[in-house]
Amino acid sequence: MSDHVDVLIIGAGLSGIGAAAHLAKDLPGTTYAVLERRGASGGTWDLFRYPGVRSDSDMHTLGYRFRPWRGDVALADGASILAYLRDTAREFGVDEHVRHGHHVTSADWDSTTSRWTVRAEVDGETRTITADFLWACSGYYDYDEGHTPHFEGQERYGGQVVHPQHWPDDLDYARKRVVVIGSGATAVTLVPAMVAGGAGHVTMLQRSPTYILPVPGNDAFKRRLTSVAGERTAYAVTRWKNVAVQSALYQLSRRRPALVRSLVRKANVALLPPGYAVDTHFNPTYDPWDQRMCLVPDGDLFHALERGRAEVVTDRIRTFTETGLELESGTHLDADIVVTATGLNLRIFGGATLSVDGEVVDPAGTMAYRAMMLSGVPNFAFTIGYTNASWTLKADLVAEYVVRVLSRMRSTGTRSVVPVRDPSVEEVPLMDFDAGYVQRVVHTLPRQGTRAPWTLKQNYLHDALALRRAKLDDGVLRWS
Question: Is the keyword Flavoprotein assigned to this protein (predicted)?
């Protein structure tokens, strides 16, 4: 394994495997390596092991554009997604280029040599690798610690407290009373899964409701079309169908929020017991898609509530007690196990420090070019997916664009490419999203601009046309 490569990819998860596969199939002859901090590939889908872990996007858009997701399962379990990723890595030879146990700590660009020098910690030692192009595909989650707010009195609680990001393999919750704190995608997945797994009773404790939309667990359209047209054609058509549906729902949510709120409420009422307090537990204070909407396959959460094995409580925690949680309303929830599904922390570029000619780059002081490169940082790209649609839709577009950039550099002998910021372009936040995990760190992220090519539309249909047709000589990228 050489100490120098043409392209160095950070992260062997969904984005990194996809990026490497694009290099393998579209730029043969490119030397590359994938540095993965953990001892196994798969990223998020290898890290999270809590009961019921699954996708919160349909698999026909979460799957890669170039490799069909087989079958008609819409929201797949974590093990199936992990197998899909690793099969993709094997098929394109990516697994042979992954270096496990490499924690990237810093990367410095040297203009005199037009190279990156990347340092990684490996078994307590520092290793150095050089590359012509650096591609950060580590997502934006902090893999070390999830977000857990301070809870009064937690130290006196006699039961177990577990964060989903660090789920113990030997956790026995059979016949136990479980309280899941949170109302996001993780919580709505955990509750029915733990009920099905034998928990005595599961309470989802939320400060405020989330939009929860029941969807079919299997895509009947994909199943029927596969029998007629075959897997690959059915996948492509289903993918575009689902993109159109997702986009339409998002646009309708932004333009007619009251209508979408009403439609979601009706879907909830239809699956809940008569007289259920829908407006207490399933009526968010914010508009649809101000935060990510939770999808539940075949309404599994609602069925768990209907059978009485689970409940939703909307209240705030006053304090932990020796035996559970005391709420601000005065109610006490007895609990043998408390699961803090309270969110994730963000950390871009895997926490690595970037510098250009010895000067440290402050991401918040840069502007993101097409939401994939940083102003003033040469030969660098990063992959961050959509917040309102499947991550891979954006990841595939980024990979296609980066391949175009690399191909142009190879054919012209260009050593360096860098987006040059226009001072007249005004700044706005990179991620205009009200979710807590974004708002906690939005001030540390790169900015976006108010006009192209510095804007992020959060719209795959727009981006697919704009990025594939975009001219590389756009007056913003400087080639040298």
Answer: yes
Q: Where are the alpha helices (DSSP H) in 350-423?
A: 391-412
pLDDT tens, 310-326? 999 999 999 999 999 99
Given a contact cutoff of 8 angstroms between Cβ atoms, the answer to whether 428 and 447 are in contact is yes
| Closest by CA position to 437, among listed 315, 348, 339, 325 | 348
User: In the CATH scheme, what is the homologous superfamily, with its name and number, of domain 4-143+345-479?
Assistant: FAD/NAD(P)-binding domain (3.50.50.60)
- 269 and 234 in contact (C-beta within 8 Å)? no
Helix (H, G, I), strand (E, B) or coil at 374: strand
Under a CB-based contact definition with an 8 Å cutoff, are residues 234 and 69 in contact? no
| HSE-up of residue 322 (Cα within 13 Å, Cβ side) | 0
- For the residues 121-132, what does the mean pLDDT come to? 95
Which of 34, 117, 130, 133 minimizes the C-alpha distance to 353? 117
The SS3 of residue 80 is helix
| Percent share of the chain, pLDDT over 90 | 83
What does the alpha-carbon distance between residue 226 and residue 284 come to, in Å, rounded to a whole number? Answer: 38
In CATH terms, is domain 149-342 a member of 2.60.290.11? Answer: no
pLDDT digits (tens, 9 = 90+) for 247-292: 999 999 999 999 999 999 999 999 999 999 999 999 999 999 888 8
Give the other-Cβ count within 10 Å of 139's Cβ: 25
Q: Do 219 and 74 form a contact (C-beta atoms < 8 A)? A: yes
Per DSSP, the residues of 264-332 read HHHHHHHHSPTT--HHHHS--SSPTTSSPPEEEETTHHHHHHHTTSEEEEE--EEEE-SSEEEETTS-E
